[in-house]
Design goal:
- By secondary structure, the protein is of the alpha/beta class.
- It is built from six helices and 13 strands.
- The strands form two sheets. Strands 6, 7, 8, 9, 10, 11, 12 and 13 form an eight-stranded parallel sheet that branches. Strands 1-3-4-5-2 form a five-stranded mixed sheet.
Length: 243
């Protein structure tokens, strides 16, 4: 069995001895029940994996010795910023998890007319932190050593007008152009996906006015989580590192 990959913030140096964070300790010792002498892989988002050996394990804390450092070259050449309409229940969690596995770099949750989710500022920040933990877990599983960022949720109007040199894409079931036929003059994409019920006509018009290209995935209407993951897969197959 391969070493468990564990995310932990902070700097790691080969040869140093460092304590595990509370989250890392809980997973490594309390869940996996590893002991002194067992090996783990740590990463902090800097693009490297750090091989480590547990040196001290008690009931409340553990330390590891960093033995080696390896650059992980599995990031896609295509940089995708996903603007995802906030969906209910576990659909949003699923979309974030799988989009990270497929190589998305940045995620902005969007409030839209039909998102149906209303949160005050405190609950909104807790939800963002929960989404970020889902992203980290997806990185642990998929082997990514660069952690995508979940930005603070914003209204769709604000996101549409953020300055960007990326290719801007809006999925639309009545679009005339296929996503596979897009011309690419940049390696950056801003991908807009609506929530359950899709974007309103006004939001679609606003996206068009903000220079978002309407593209078609196929003849069938896809659910929000299916649309996001299918679009990301198509983009990675055409311009990224899938296929």
């Amino acid at each position: 069995m391969s070493n468990p990959r564990i995310y932990q913030t902070g700097d790691f140096n080969v040869g140093s001895n460092t304590p595990l964070s509370d989250d890392a300790f809980g997973h490594v010792v309390r869940v996996l029940r590893l002991k002194a002498g067992d090996e783990v892989t740590l990463f902090n988002g800097d693009g490297h994996d750090y091989q480590a050996v547990l040196t001290e394990v008690s009931k409340k804390q553990a330390r590891v010795n960093i033995t080696s450092k390896e650059f992980i070259a599995n990031e896609s050449p295509l940089n995708i910023h996903l603007g995802q309409g906030i969906s209910r229940g576990d659909r949003m969690d699923f979309t974030l998890q799988k989009s990270v596995e497929l190589g998305v770099n940045t995620i902005t949750p969007l409030f839209t007319e039909r998102c149906g989710v209303k949160l005050n500022a405190e609950r909104l920040e807790k939800k963002r932190q929960q989404w970020q933990k889902i992203v980290i877990s997806a990185c642990e599983q998929s082997g990514r050593a660069v952690v995508p960022q979940v930005l603070a949720p914003v209204a769709i109007a604000e996101w549409l007008h953020q300055p960007s040199e990326a290719l801007k894409i809006n999925l639309h079931p009545r679009a005339e152009h296929s996503i596979m036929g897009l011309p690419m003059s940049t390696n950056r994409v801003r991908l807009l996906i609506g929530p359950e019920g899709g974007l309103s006509e006004q939001e679609i018009n606003d996206a068009s006015d903000a220079n978002y290209t309407e593209v078609l995935l196929g003849l069938r209407v896809l659910r929000t989580e299916t649309a996001a993951l299918t679009a990301i897969t198509a983009l990675q197959c055409k311009f990224g590192d899938l296929g």
